[in-house]
User: Fold this.
Amino acid sequence: MNKNLVVLSGAGISAESGIKTFRDSDGLWENYNVEDVASIDGWYRNPELMTQFYNERRSELGRTQPNDAHKIIAELEQYFNVTVVTQNVDNLHERGGSHNIIHLHGELTKVCSENGKKCVEDIGYETYDYGRKSADGHITRPFIVWFGEDVPLLGKAAEAVEQADILIVIGTSLNVYPAAGLLFSARPSCKIYLIDPKEVNTTSRVEFIQKKATEGMRILKEKLLAEL
Ligand code: OAD
Assistant:
């Protein structure tokens, strides 16, 4: 039987596709105040700004392609039961060919109703003006998990990590909880690899591959297949 392999990804896996990370020196949080564009309170204060911010991110995503790291993770499905738990709101894992993806922080290509996140709708890379209505008559908002909000898929993600034989943590600074805490749901026998060009402060259990995502995944794929 194939082993269970879980990938926990963050913004760094999409960096080589041209999407900015959040906390690197040229990251998104250098130019925007996270409270203004990524918190539920920011939405209450200035929903027009938030709508515009996610319109820009969505348009940018439409011009972006998955890179080899996304593709190699998809290829691993030939050898392992792969679950991707991603903090990313882009769809590059899907477009790279992965089939089993948990989007912890929501999805850029989707919108929902302001009323309890109902009426989820796939709008692709479309932009729209604040004031657009969802099917229930309430204002449309991005289908994103903002700071201050519940993480509805956390339980499903934790279950996947608990069942993992191999966990690959890639492109995340592990600054944001509860996502960062998922690592600690791994069984003692689970082998944990971490791929990042910079050192990441985390548990000593990880085997650190200090490389960018594409090169790191190439190296790790070879290693995992050699051990099959
Ligand atoms: P961060 O920006 O905090 O961390 C990105 C990580 O990617 C850093 O550790 C970088 O060193 C690494 N990195 C940069 N380039 C890379 C490359 N080419 N290959 C591999 N790694 C690279 O992003 P996240 O950890 O994803 O949430 O941030 C977590 C959450 O914070 C996001 O989901 C978002 C943000 O606020 C919300 O907005 C709710």
Observations:
- The mean pLDDT is 96.
- The longest helix spans residues 47-62.
